[in-house]
Amino acid sequence: MGRPKSGLTLQELQAKSDKKRGVRLQSYKLHEEVIALLAELSEQTGLSKTQIVTQGILLFAETKKAA
């Protein structure tokens, strides 16, 4: 299979892409009910789970500023 034409491994390409987009992997342990709710919200809204978590955190931050 070998390396892609860029000469970088797939991991290197992903790391370069992530850095360019300003994203990095973050993981958390969540209760099963929260995971199920996240999946349900994603399916209902058509938003990715990442988008839902991001919007939730931003909304939480906004409500804390107002308080």
Oligomer: single chain
Give the class from helix and strand content and strand pairing. mainly alpha
Q: Termini distance?
A: 56 Å
Percentage of residues in strands: under 5%
Count of beta strands: 0
Mean of pLDDT: 92
Q: Categorize the overall geometry.
A: elongated
Give me the Rg, rounded: 17 Å
Fraction of residues in H or I helices: 55-70%
Order of helices and strands: HHH
Query: How many individual helices?
Result: 3
Low-confidence stretches: none
Task: Give structural notes.
With 67 residues, the protein is an all-alpha fold. It is 66% helix and 0% strand. The chain contains three helices and no strands. It has helices spanning 10-21, 32-45, 49-66. The longest helix is centred in the last third of the chain and has 18 residues, at 49-66. It is elongated, with a radius of gyration of 17 Å.
Give the SSE map.
Layout: H1 10-21, H2 32-45, H3 49-66
Keywords:
67 residues, mainly alpha, 3 helices, 0% strand
What is the structure about, briefly put?
With 67 residues, this protein is mainly alpha-helical.
